[in-house]
C-alpha cells in the first residue's frame, strides 16, 4: 500500500508525531485531496490541547487546507481529479435536517463535521473531505496564499459582509493579528471608513500599510472615546481573544452599532443601558461554509487582499505551532506540504 506522512496528536496535550500512514481512500460523497498547504490556526489547539473532551485520538489537525482533488468517491457529481480545492473549519452538512433545510448549513443538527477536530485534517500529504465542504480555489492564488483564507479569511470577510455596515460607514477592527490584519484589508476593500485598533504605537505603520484610514493605540488612548470622536462605529469587528479589550471598545459604538465577535474570548461585562439607549447589539459570527470560503477567495483575487504568512515545511510543525500560540507569528503560520 502507498504511504503518506501525517502529523498526528495521539492524546490530549500530546506532542505532534510525524507518522507514516496508508493513503486513505475516499468513501461515498467524499474526495481525497493531495494537500499542498495548510495554515496553522489558533483553533488547532483544540485538538492539540484536548479542549473538547469528545475529540477522538489520534487526530491529524489542520482546517486551513488547500490542495488538488486526487480521487473522488462514489456519488460525487461536482468534483473531478485535478481541480484545486480547499476546506476550512466547516467540514460538511447533511442537507436534510431542519437547520440545513432552512439554509443554516453551518448549524447542521445531524453532523458535527469539523476539519482536523472530528475527522483528520490537513497536516498530512493527503486528507479526505466531504464533497460539499470543498471550495474551488482560483488559479490566481498560490496554495500558501489561499490556505489562511480558508479560516482566518472567511471568518473576517463573511462576518464583515453580514454585519450591516454600508460603504463609507465607520468600521473598526479590534486587533491586528492573524485575523485582524485580514479584517482591516477586507474592510478597506469593502469601502468602509476603516479604523484599526491595537496595542502600541508601533503597530500604526502596519495598519496604514494595510489601508486603514485611522489608527487607535489602545494602550495610550481610550479606544471607545476615540471612536466616539469619529462619530461612533457602525461595526466593530472584535478579533482579539481578550474579553476586557472587547469591553473597552463597546462604548465606541454609534447608534445601531454592533460589536461582531469572532475572537474566542473569556466572559466580560457590558452595560445594558448603553446598548438599549443607542439600540446597539453584540453578535457572534460563525466562520462560514464552503461557498462563503469560495466568495472570500474570489474577493481576495478581485481586490488584492492577501494574508501575510510565515512558511514552514511539514517537518517543522512544532515551530509553526509555537509561533502561532506565542502570538509571535507575523501573521499566519502556513505549512507547505507539496
Ligand atoms: Zn481556524
Ligand atoms: Zn443538516
How would you summarize the topology of this molecule?
Elements lengths: L2 E7 L6 E7 L7 E11 L3 H6 L15 E8 L11 E4 L10 H4 L24 E5 L4 E2 L6 H4 L5 H10 L8 E5 L5 H10 L3 E6 L5 H6 L4 E4 L5 H7 L3 E6 L4 H5 L5 E9 L10 H6 L3 E4 L5 H14 L5 E5 L3 H9 L6 E5 L2
Parallel strand pairs: 8-9, 8-11, 9-10, 11-12, 12-13, 14-15
Antiparallel strand pairs: 1-2, 3-4, 3-6, 3-15, 4-5, 5-7
Helix pairs in contact: 4-5, 4-10
The structure holds zinc ion (2 copies).
Put the structure in a nutshell:
This protein has helices spanning 44-49, 98-101, 143-146, 152-161, 180-189, 204-209, 223-229, 243-247, 272-277, 290-303, 317-325, and strands spanning 3-9, 16-22, 30-40, 65-72, 84-87, 126-130, 135-136, 170-174, 193-198, 214-217, 233-238, 253-261, 281-284, 309-313, 332-336. It is α/β, with parallel strands linked by helices.
Mean pLDDT metric: 97
Order of SSEs, N→C?
Answer: EEEHEEHEEHHEHEHEHEHEHEHEHE
- The residue fraction in helices comes out at 10-25%
Model regions low in confidence, pLDDT < 50 over at least 5 residues: none
Largest sheet: 7 strands, mixed
β-strand percent reads 25-35%
Number of helices: 11
Could you tell me the radius of gyration in angstroms?
20 Å
Keywords:
338 residues; alpha/beta; seven-stranded mixed sheet; six-stranded parallel sheet; 11 helices; 24% helix; binds zinc ion
Written overview of the protein:
- With 338 residues, this protein is of the alpha/beta class.
- Helices cover 24% and strands 26% of the residues.
- The protein has eleven helices and 15 strands.
- The strands form three sheets. Strands 3, 4, 5, 6, 7, 14 and 15 form a seven-stranded mixed sheet that branches. It has a six-stranded parallel sheet with strand order 10-9-8-11-12-13, sandwiched between helices.
- Helix 4 packs across helix 5.
- The radius of gyration is 20 Å and the shape is globular.
- It binds zinc ion (2 copies).
- The site of one zinc ion has 9 residues, from helix 2.
Amino acid at each position: 500500500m502507498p504511504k503518506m506522512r501525517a502529523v498526528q496528536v495521539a492524546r490530549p496535550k500530546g506532542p505532534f508525531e510525524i507518522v507514516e500512514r496508508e493513503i486513505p481512500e475516499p468513501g461515498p460523497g467524499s474526495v481525497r485531496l493531495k494537500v499542498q498547504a495548510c495554515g496553522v490556526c489558533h483553533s488547532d489547539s483544540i485538538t492539540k490541547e484536548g479542549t473538547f473532551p469528545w475529540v477522538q485520538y489520534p487526530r491529524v489537525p489542520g482546517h486551513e487546507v488547500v490542495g488538488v482533488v486526487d480521487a473522488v468517491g462514489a456519488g460525487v457529481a461536482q468534483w473531478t481529479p485535478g481541480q484545486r480545492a480547499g476546506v476550512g473549519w466547516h467540514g460538511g452538512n447533511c442537507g436534510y435536517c431542519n437547520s440545513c433545510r432552512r439554509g443554516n448549513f453551518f448549524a447542521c443538527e445531524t453532523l458535527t463535521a469539523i476539519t482536523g477536530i472530528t475527522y483528520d485534517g490537513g497536516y498530512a500529504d493527503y486528507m479526505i473531505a466531504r464533497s460539499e465542504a470543498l471550495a474551488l480555489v482560483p488559479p490566481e492564488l498560490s496554495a500558501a496564499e489561499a490556505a489562511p483564507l480558508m479560516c482566518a479569511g472567511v471568518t473576517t470577510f463573511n462576518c464583515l459582509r453580514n454585519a450591516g455596515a454600508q460603504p463609507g460607514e465607520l468600521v473598526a477592527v479590534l486587533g491586528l493579528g492573524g485575523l485582524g490584519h485580514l479584517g482591516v484589508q477586507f474592510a478597506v476593500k469593502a469601502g468602509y471608513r476603516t479604523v484599526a485598533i491595537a496595542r502600541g504605537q508601533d503597530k500604526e505603520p502596519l495598519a496604514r500599510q494595510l489601508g486603514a484610514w485611522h489608527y487607535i493605540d489602545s494602550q495610550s488612548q481610550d479606544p471607545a472615546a476615540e471612536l466616539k470622536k469619529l462619530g461612533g462605529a457602525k461595526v466593530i469587528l472584535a478579533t482579539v481573544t481578550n474579553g476586557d479589550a472587547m469591553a473597552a471598545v463597546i462604548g465606541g459604538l454609534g447608534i445601531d452599532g454592533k460589536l461582531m465577535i469572532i475572537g474566542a474570548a473569556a466572559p466580560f461585562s457590558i452595560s445594558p443601558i448603553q446598548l438599549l439607549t443607542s439600540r446597539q447589539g453584540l453578535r457572534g459570527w460563525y466562520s462560514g461554509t464552503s461557498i462563503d470560503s469560495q466568495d472570500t477567495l474570489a474577493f481576495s483575487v478581485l481586490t488584492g487582499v492577501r494574508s501575510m504568512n510565515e512558511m514552514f515545511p511539514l517537518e517543522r510543525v512544532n515551530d509553526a505551532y509555537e509561533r502561532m500560540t506565542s502570538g509571535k507569528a507575523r501573521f499566519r503560520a502556513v505549512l507547505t506540504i507539496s
